[in-house]
Amino acid sequence: MTQPTDVPRVGGLLPLALELAGAGVPVLPLRAGKLPFGNCPACAGSACGDRPHMKRAGTCACPAPCHGWAAATTDAAVLASLPWAGAWREARAVAYHPGGAGLTVVDLDNANAVTWARESLPATRTVATTRGEHWIYLGVMRSTNAVRPGVDIKSSMSYARWLGPGTGTMTDLPDTVRALPVKERPTPHGGVVASAPAPTGGACCHRTPAYLERGISMAEGRITEARSAIHATVYRTFLAVLSTHGRCGCLTDAHVTRLFTAAQAKGESPRHCTIAWANARTALGV
């Protein structure tokens, strides 16, 4: 990944965003307070909590998340279009989705945390921050705050400020960092059962088991290969699977588990998977 050389002044952030996007880094603008913009009327003024998965039912008609980590994108046309263009004019910083770029940021928030990292973690690329450092590794894991005093993990389902290219050689994500979260990774569904829909009497088009298997495998691949807008990709994929396979009874709970597992490997929470599945079923009436 090529690295832009510096952070431009406020007002010149869109060129940097486009440069990062061109290097495969999904980006988004941040307003004052390091918060994402609400790019639709319903999300203005933090009405949705500034987190895509916290949107209240009925408050946002966006076909995809309008802001936050899930809206980070590498699409130059999207970045330069409305309503993004207005956001970039007011932006105070460029942020990026580390997980979408295949990265993990160990956010060290004070001098003590930096000292701990230098004594405990393998050397990698470092970026100076206002109060500490970002240590950037190659690899993706779930994001977790406060894994120890002054230390946050930012990777999947999170964003970090772009503060420059940093120094040093980026190294692979070590097991010592993967082991930092105190909570174990949730199992598929997180204990919440999201079942396949019951047959609705529609004609079965699955002349052979291979037809359904190919459809599920393609859906898993679509989720796994997504580099940005993960939240929207998961929902659209669930919608596509249900529209093709959800009415005749051939879709099983085992197939749903496979889809949820693929989504969680990209950083989606069990709760979000369950909500996205339920929303897709409601949209199709299955």
Could you please describe the fold and organization of this structure?
The protein is of the alpha+beta class. Helix content is 34%, strand content 14%. The protein is built from 9 helices and 10 strands. The strands form 2 sheets. Strands 4, 5, 6, 7, 8 and 10 form a 6-stranded mixed sheet that branches. Helix 6 runs antiparallel to helix 7 (230-245), helix 6 runs parallel beside helix 8 (253-265) and helix 7 (230-245) crosses helix 9. The longest helix has 17 residues, at 209-225. It is globular, with a radius of gyration of 20 Å. The N and C termini lie far apart (43 Å).
What attributes does this structure have?
alpha+beta; single chain; 286 residues; 9 helices
Give a short summary of the structure.
The chain has 286 residues and is α+β, with helices and mostly antiparallel strands. The chain has nine helices and ten strands.
Kindly report how far apart the N and C termini lie.
43 Å
Task: Tell me the series of helices and strands, N- to C-terminal.
Answer: HEEHHEEHEEEEEEHHHHH
Structural Rg: 20 Å
Looking at the chains present, what oligomeric state does this protein adopt?
A: single chain
Kindly name the structural category.
Answer: alpha+beta
Q: Kindly state the mean pLDDT as a whole number?
A: 79
Number of separate strands: 10
How would the global form be characterised? globular
Please indicate the percent range of residues in DSSP E strands (runs of 2 or more).
5-15%
Task: Let me know the largest β-sheet.
Answer: 6 strands, mixed
Instruction: Give the number of helices.
Output: 9
Regions with pLDDT < 50 over 5+ consecutive residues? 5-11, 50-59, 183-193
